Task: structure prediction
Amino acid sequence: MQEQELEALRYPIGRFQPPASITDADIRRFIDTIAQLPANLEQAIANLDAVQLQTPYRPDGWTVQQVVHHLPDSHMQAYARFKLALTEDNPVVKPYAEDRWAALPDSRQVPVQVSLTLLHALHRRWVALMEAMTTAQWERTYFHPEHQRSFALKEIVALYAWHSRHHLMHIVRLRERMGW
Result:
């Protein structure tokens, strides 16, 4: 497989490009994308059997099951980071090894429905939190040691809207390619 094809499989909606500026309308759109992810993910994996759930979305990539479990793993981190940024001054967040998390037994053995249920509950809380935030709160930050910089919450909501679409499209495009 050529490098360009692998890039398209790895980043089906392209790599994340932080917006130059973020308006209130953008934030609303990002929140809506995050709010819709659980239902969209549920639809994307509907009627997949055990073999299909164990199919990687690309060569050397995660299986569909690992992608489904990764989403609440990642979004729990984001939710906690939002709460830290809203309650502390520029807190330092702890990075996590997402590839190692995806290799743990729960990501390989627990039924995907468990993570779908978790994602529905998590997103309901996260969206409620974001919808109540003030303009000043969207400017609050946390410091990420891997990137050696602070991130405003308005940047993070853009990132996680992209992240939601990114992983959803891994599954949708795999289904299209496989004719499922």
